[in-house]
Amino acid sequence: MKQIHFATTNEYKIKFANNLLRTHDWECVPGKVNLIEPQSMTQEEISQYKVLQAYEQLKVPVITMDSGFFISALKGFPGIYTADFFKSLNNDQILQLMEKESDRSAYIQQTLSINNGEEIKSFTSKSEGVIVQSTEAGEGYAFDAFFKPNITGKIMAKMTEGEKSLIWGEAWNKLGDFLNSSSLQ
After folding, report:
1. Burial class for 54, CB neighbours closer than 10 Å (0-12, 13-18, 19+)
2. Of 66, 92, 144, 177, catalytic
3. pTM (predicted TM-score)
């Protein structure tokens, strides 16, 4: 099994990434780095900036991951500010914010970037869905408690790991294909 560094020490992220990359004969190993997260207009720009920093610190090929939650009624907010948004508001407050909105559509997006020392490539997964009413919401961290992707029809907190791979898997599969076609083999 070939290995690639992943700029995170979050065990859940490593485990989830490995479940998807192992189908490509790759696995992630954690890479402890200190990253400055820029404020930018696109998730891809943020991911690429972070993977530049990670490569400079580790001096080996490395990947980074950025996720965001985009609410149509809020013109895409919180988007790239998702982490800070969920530090400021709890799930009940967010559901109250959406209570009178007729457009409850939203999407989640994940961007992976790899820096192999020669080039930077990015791969994105996007999953559209809806924010459920508070009566349908469950327990879970952040949007997992109330976001229902169209592809599964379940809130994320009630999805299996296999179902979650339907949501996030596209970017990881593209990364796996890239790794297998690159000089890192």
Report:
1. buried
2. 66
3. 0.91
